[in-house]
Amino acid sequence: MYSIAFEISVLFSAISLLLIGMSFVNIVKLKSLASKEVTGDEEDVKEDRLYKLFSDMTLASTVSVILSIVAFAVIAITDQSIVLTIIVAATAFAAAMINYRSPSYMKYVHPERDFPSVNDKEYAKKLFDMSDEGERHIMLQGLYKSFTIGNALLLFAMIGCVFYSVYSNESQLFSIIVMALILIVMNMQYMLKVRNR
Q1: Closest Cα partner for 88 from 76, 77, 101?
Q2: Which of the four pLDDT bands, split at 50, 70 and 90, describes residue 61?
């Protein structure tokens, strides 16, 4: 790992920068398309395109944040150059800012709605409450699929870390404990919410 740490950091940083660029392009397209006047069937096409641009921008910025953090972790663990550290830190910051601001771009998808401020402590609840039944159904389907996949992936990651620890003689106990705690908290949160409905 240490022998290719520089290459991994550069690769993840490059992908992250590419995703940041894609996010900016999608923001520009989103604003441009939102300002166009359309009528009839074109309205449905426009709304669908706006939603896809917003979703792509949000996904790209989220993946960019994750890859930047991984690149930063590799740099921190393997003592890479300060220049690369600064570049990756700047990339992570830019990705995090886009990701943080991404909910505010929803106003271009649905300009008729009065969205809550991203800084509002009850942003998620207010957003959920203002959504119609169809949107809630789609949100809940996505969240439930993410929840079940997240559970399975974390469980397999824990098992993988156990095997890695045994065969490499490098303890992954901390990672295993953190993943176990995440699984416990996720499942407790879900089950308590369902039980106390």
Answers
A1: 76
A2: very high
